[in-house]
Amino acid sequence: MSIAIYPGSFDPVTRGHLDIIKRAAAQFDRLIVCVMVNSEKKGLFSHEERVALLQKVTADIPNVEVDASPMLLAEYAKLKNASCVVKGLRALSDFEKEFQMAMINRKLNPGLETMFLSARQNYTYLSSSITKELAMYHVPLTDFVPDEIAEEVQARMEDQLGR
Ligand code: ADP
User: Among 12, 39, 149, 151, which lies 20 to 30 A Cα-Cα from 130?
Assistant: First the structure.
């Protein structure tokens, strides 16, 4: 069985992430979308909430499961018997860091491949941080995050701003 992991912060999941999830799920028997827990970074949503948002938007993709982990990715992949890490590339600027990460992961777990999927053209500008920034200015989020979670993301941003 081919198992891949799509790691990220997903704070929150965007339409760009969901596009990568759908395309990667079509290439593997199982895709584990994993919220990587990085205690230094405090996000808009807690790790549990990010998992719940991801579960909501991937509910109709049967071979996708959602998890969160504080482990090193190379170790987490071993634990899950995954042979591949999936990454999305939006621009050349993503490449340098991702390439370094891929090499480190291969050093730590020589059986682990990294597969890069190029972002769909209309999502190359899209990131979780730009989504949060736009939410601050009340820009409707439906073009940026999946419909099912747009209201929740907007409401959380309003909450945080104390409006
Ligand atoms: P962000 O940069 O939006 O905060 P993450 O850190 O959660 O996203 O990224 C997880 C993975 O998804 C990374 O491989 C990242 O390059 C990829 N990714 C993020 N946004 C997009 C997008 N709009 N299209 C394709 N891939 C993306």
Answer: 39
